[in-house]
Amino acid sequence: MALSVSEITNALFEKIRALGPDAFDDPVNSAALKSLIKDHFQEGEERFELSWPGKNLCMKAAANPSERSLKAYLEESSNWDNTHNILIEGDNLDALKILQQDFYGKIKTIYIDPPYNTGNNFFTYADNFSEKQNRALQKNNNKSLDATEKNWYLHAGWLSMMYPRLVLARKLMSDNGVIFISIDDNEVAHLKLIMDEIFGHDNYIDIFCWTKSETPANLSKKSKKVVEYILCYQKSKSPEKFKGIRKKSISSNGLLNQSNRVNTLVFPPDVVRTKIPGQVIKKGIYGTDKYHIELLEDTEVRNDRFILPVVLKAKFKWTQPKLDSEVSRGTLLNIPTLRFSPSYERMEYDAEVPPNLINYKVGVETNETAGNELAGLFGAKVFDFPKPPSLIKYLLGFSDDPDGFVLDFFAGSGSTAQAVLEMNAKDNGNRKFICVQLDEKTPENSVARKNGFDTISQITKKRIEIVLQNLSNGEFRVSGKGAPGFRFYRIEN
To answer: What is the pTM of this model?
Structure first.
């Protein structure tokens, strides 16, 4: 049974009270409480942190409960009774607070693509601290602030918008949960610092670089913008190995390496293939111009196989236990000629650890491709710069749980929902998405408005409906937790 936010808070409070009961007299004994934590924070001690105007307010915003609630709209949902996918329309700060009751510690993966703070796109999130800073900025504009001072206000407002949402997001994550955040160079440095503060530097994984465009605009006099960044953290870094792409093509790999020590390998009978005609082969020195290879015992070839063990001495990459393991997993072994230079072919490869460059080489598309795909779904370009579902599927695959919850609280055009639905369709998984999108107005005279979309959340919802319709034409699960569909909620007073 899920704990409520108040129950979670009370439990934490009782743990602190147990450490220093004298600090919790009525009223609270502040001197005793300060003494309790003095070993960690000495009075007057400076600490490394990112500070900005409004930080205290935004920290309070994360702690204060929401006064709003979710209202279900069954008539606007799809397959309500059989699906656990959720789409929420409204401010994500309220949504993240409300979700704590049922999803505290349950989210395996979070992917978000927040506003990049290019100067005019984040005060849509009408938090009290952002509103105050916006008013202060407008007021101070009359005092002719220079560009640097204006940037300070913009950075402060963006940080105050992001900080409480990330604090709440971390609480929703499972202990081995992973979060990915797309960002560009406007805020990547500040985002890294607050992520270190909220998640801990020890839980930092990497900053992945995604090739957003193969044909970047030639607008800057200094550099072309080819990549965006994706910050990755775990709630608690685990020894789990992240999985990238899996090599599919069969290739021949030599077993010799000049820098390795000389050792002996015994290749079992009837497993090594060859092109040598049937014959008995005497022990002796063989090899190539580069490698000295010694056959230590006579062997025999019959019907393109060595029917006796092949005992070789050379500078091998593998040890005998490694060779035995590869034989047991079905790796193909070859000694094609009388040079006795062995090689291997794997029919199936383990997934590689993902590189921190993400592009077409790992099957991930660009903004241009994503925009064309979305326009194809809607018949018009209703959303600028959507993220490609291939990017999100690739990221989710690093630490995939086919039964897990995936959260995106800046859902935008709905790329994450599409990625989850398509992954389930491919492997019959039970992943569930929780997507949150503000009912932000689309610009007047925009293509979106002309096509009947007054808000971004309407685009999100419509995309999910289109994807569900397209997938219904194929083989897709129609029951169970991963059933196609979504439950639609609005945040209301």
So the answer is: 0.74
**Kind and range of the H or E run holding 415:** helix 415-427
136 has pLDDT over 70? no
Q: Are 50 and 190 in contact (CB under 8 A)?
A: yes
- List strands edge to edge, sheet with 284-285: 262-267, 310-315, 294-295, 284-285
Report the alpha-carbon distance of residue 133 to residue 130 in Å, rounded.
5
Cis previous bond, 27, omega within 30 = yes
Residue 138 amino acid letter: Q
Start-to-end CA span in the chain (Å): 26
Residue 479: is it exposed, middle or buried by C-beta count within 10 angstroms (0-12/13-18/19+)? exposed
Mean pLDDT of 370-390: 93
Would you say residue 324 has pLDDT above 60?
Answer: yes
Tally of CA atoms within 13 A in the half-sphere of 107 that contains its CB: 30
Instruction: Say how far apart CA 164 and CA 55 lie, in whole Å.
Output: 9
CA 147 to chain centre: 35
Helix (H/G/I), strand (E/B), else coil: 2: coil
In three-state secondary structure terms, 61 is helix
Closest CA to 235 of 161, 169, 160: 169
As given in the structure block, the two tokens for residue 205 are 């994984």
Contact 187, 117 (CB under 8 A): yes
Question: Among residues 186, 165, 162, 180, which one has the least CA distance to residue 231?
Answer: 180
Mean pLDDT for the chain? 86
How much is the average pLDDT of 21-27? 62
| Nearest CA-CA partner of 476 in 85, 161, 159, 145 | 85
| DSSP per-residue codes, 63-108 | HSPPS-EEEE-GGGSBSGGGB--EEEES-HHHHHHHHHHHHTTTEE
Q: Which amino acid would we find at residue 443?
A: P
Give the distance, in angstroms, between the CA of residue 204 and the centroid of all CA atoms in the same chain: 12
